[in-house]
Design brief:
Blueprint lengths: L1 E2 L5 E2 L28 H16 L7 E5 L18 E3 L10 E2 L2 E4 L6 E3 L9 E9 L8 E7 L6 E11 L5 E10 L2 E11 L4 E8 L4 E6 L2 E6 L3 E2 L7 E5 L4 E10 L2
Antiparallel strand pairs: 1-12, 2-12, 3-18, 4-7, 5-6, 6-18, 7-17, 8-13, 8-18, 9-10, 9-17, 10-11, 10-16, 11-12, 13-14, 14-15
Length: 255
C-alpha cells in the first residue's frame, strides 16, 4: 500500500461534496430477543436492529443511513417525515440492482442524495463502504459532500473516489477544490484489494479541518471554501463513470 500526494487536477463534475471520517460501530445483524426464531424471522429482526442502531447518532445528531438491504428512498429512519434519500433525477430507485445488501450499478448511474437539503455547518461524520468494478471511465465509486453553506454562496466541497486499476487493485483518491473549476488531490492510497473499501471522514466546517481514514490509512487536511451558484446541499453516492457497488453509507450532522 502506498500513499502518494497529488496536486491540482482540473475540474470534473456536477457539484461538490466534502467528507470527513470518524469510526462507527457496525452492530451484528442478529435478533436481540434471544429467541429461537426461524432464519427468516431472525434475518428480519436482525436487519431492523441494525437499522435502528445505525440511525442512532454518535454525537446525538441527525443521521442518514442506507445499507441497501431495501430501497433507500423508502426510508425515513431519522423521523423527519421526509424520505432520507432520493435519486437526483427524482426517478424511482432501481430495486432490481439491490442484492444481498449491496447496490450494484452496472454502468455510470444517477446520484443518490441525502434529503432534505442540509447546509452542513456543524461537524459531519461519514462512513461509506464502496468499490469500483470496472477500469473504464475516469472515476469509479464516488462519495461527495459540500459542507459549510453560509448563505452567501460559499461552501467547501470534498469527494472520495474508489477506482479499479488495470492490475486488479483499487486506488482511493481524496479530493477537494481550490476554486470552482480546479480540483486538488490531497491524498492517494494505492495497491488496495478488489473488495469493498471502508472510508471514514470527520469534518469540521467551522475550521474546514478534515480527518480521514481510507482502508485503514489515516491523515488530516483542510478544505478550501469557494464561491459558486451550486445549491447541492446533500451528501451523495454515485457510480460516476462506470460500474460500481455500494454496501453502506452513513452520514451524521452533529448539533
Amino acid at each position: 500500500m502506498e500513499i502518494v500526494p497529488r496536486l491540482a487536477l482540473t475540474g470534473l463534475w456536477l457539484g461538490g461534496l466534502v467528507c470527513a471520517g470518524c469510526g462507527f460501530r457496525i452492530d451484528s445483524m442478529v435478533p436481540s430477543d434471544g429467541t429461537t426464531e426461524s432464519l427468516v424471522d431472525g434475518a428480519i429482526d436482525g436487519t431492523s436492529d441494525a437499522l435502528a442502531d445505525a440511525s442512532t447518532g454518535s454525537c446525538n445528531g441527525k443521521v442518514w443511513f442506507a445499507d441497501f438491504a431495501t430501497d433507500p428512498t423508502a426510508l425515513d429512519l431519522n423521523g423527519d417525515s421526509v424520505p432520507d434519500w432520493a435519486l437526483r433525477t427524482a426517478a424511482a430507485f432501481p430495486t432490481a440492482q439491490l442484492s444481498g445488501g449491496v447496490w450494484s450499478t452496472p454502468s455510470s448511474g444517477t446520484a443518490l442524495d441525502t434529503q432534505p437539503k442540509q447546509p452542513f455547518t456543524t461537524r459531519v461524520l461519514v462512513r461509506v463502504r464502496m468499490r469500483s468494478i470496472t477500469t473504464s471511465g475516469a472515476r469509479g465509486a464516488v462519495f461527495w459532500i459540500n459542507v459549510g453553506y453560509d448563505g452567501s454562496g460559499t461552501f467547501a466541497p470534498l469527494y472520495v473516489d474508489a477506482k479499479l486499476q488495470s492490475n486488479g487493485t483499487q486506488t482511493l483518491h481524496f479530493m477537494r477544490k481550490t476554486v470552482a473549476s480546479v480540483e486538488d488531490e490531497f491524498a492517494t492510497i494505492t495497491g488496495l484489494g478488489a473488495g469493498f473499501l471502508d472510508v471514514e471522514l470527520d469534518i469540521d466546517p467551522a475550521t474546514l479541518g478534515v480527518s480521514y481514514v481510507g482502508a485503514g490509512t489515516s491523515g488530516t487536511t483542510t478544505l478550501n471554501r469557494l464561491t459558486s451558484g451550486a445549491t447541492d446541499q446533500w451528501a451523495t453516492v454515485v457510480a460516476y463513470s462506470g460500474a460500481a457497488e455500494f454496501d453502506e453509507v452513513r452520514v451524521e450532522v452533529c448539533p
